Amino acid sequence: MAERWKTRPEGSNWGDFGPDDQIGRMNLLTPEIRRKAAEEIREGRAFCLSLPLDYPGSNKLTPYRHPPRFHHARRGPGHNYNYALSDVNEIFSDVISDDAVLLFTQYSTQWDALGHVGSMFDADGDGVAEKVYYNGYRAGVEIVGPDDAPAEDPGAGALGIENLAETAVQGRGVLVDLETPYGRARKMVGYDELMRALEAQGTGVETGDFLCLHTGFAELVLSMNRDPDGEVLANACAVLDGRDEALLRWIDDSGLVAICADNFAVEAYPSRPGETDRYPGLPLHNLCLFRLGIHLGELWNFAELASWLKAAGRSRFFLTAPPLRLPRAVGSPVTPVATV
Ligand code: UVW
């Protein structure tokens, strides 16, 4: 297939992994890098890096995303909870339950697919900007129809989360503790602040690494007991500063394959309150998802892992974090596991 663009966006890597590529920088995670990552398993101890998926607990953090809603799965005329299999054959003694859940895929601990954030961009060079995603894939399918009715064929025709799932998602995580140096008040973290935190831990990021950011945000969410204060959370903890060109350049140069944070957008949103010139509201998403194909993880829960690593004087661990292999989804819940 030929390239989908005449001019690629400035600073993008479109085409570098092939014109049809849909996994972006995950291409850098070679078997050899994964084998080296497995050397981080020294104690055999494992940590769950997910929030319970019904946290934060309401839609007060992101008004357009709601907690999971359980529905009765039907079985014949009744529902399928505590279904006595003797209804099928009286000799059976089994009792069975099934689930049906309405799940906003990006409500809680999650991966953003590359199809999650694109940009208005003139890929044809005809002077007209259109809706374009990583590697020049165009927006072609409406997610919802008029009046919020589901469209006939919703979902991403390309760049869905199944592409990430098919890579199996295992490698080396590097946990950067931003809570210790910067506290739980809102703090914009640019290149200088991130480098200071890495230096304080005596660690660095190499090609193929998953950069993981612990800010204390998940602990704050958990402390609110499913009754989140949206105002407090919107102004809490460290967030990456997507306006900082030095930080964006470092992300590009570092070779990292994903950034996973315990906060809800990795970066501050909106990025430039009061700005009047056209500019991405999510410049770090623009760099990562749109220009470079770097996946973003959000609302991960690093609390226990962070304490353990700090006590052990370590920053690195083996990470396993496949999303659901759900074709056409633009995001997915994930239950990441760290092994140390
Ligand atoms: C937004 O919609 C702000 O995206 P994300 O969940 O990736 O932060």
Automatic annotation (TrEMBL):
InterPro entries per the UniProt record, alphabetical: KFase/CYL, KFase_sf
What's the protein called, per UniProt?
Cyclase family protein
